[in-house]
Amino acid sequence: MKCALLLVVLSLAIPCQAQKPNIEDHFTKGTLNGRFWNSLPEDSRLWFILGYCEGTSQFWLACPTEVENGELVKGIDRFYQEPENLRLPVITAMAVFTQKVRGASPTLIESLMKAARDFADKPGETHLFPRANEPAK
Prior knowledge:
This protein is mainly α and 137 residues long. It has one domain. 56% of the residues lie in helices and 3% in strands. It has 6 helices and 2 strands. Strands 1-2 form a two-stranded antiparallel sheet. A hairpin with a 2-residue loop joins strand 1 and strand 2 (31-32). The protein starts with a helix and ends in a 16-residue tail after the last helix.
């Protein structure tokens, strides 16, 4: 009886283990991407934005003040509806949406997208934006 129960438990656990997502798919060169974003439940997306904004409030890359956090979440959701954007960092989705809200030109939006694609495609790049103490390349 114990053996049969153990077999039932194991047979239920194995499919659960097989469905575990590959965490490496959630990063592009160490930066969280759209696959990560899409894996989050709706309320976790808002908490991510709140944590990001709180964490960056003292740095140059602060969150936009022009939109509510819920609107930012919806904008990022729309960005990642395009499959080709899934590998791009979440910070790119935030920047593109913010610039669109600010009325940026299509040329500026495309330059942000190109920089993000180049980052994702170029071997050896580890940061989308240069760090404050690193010279720009």
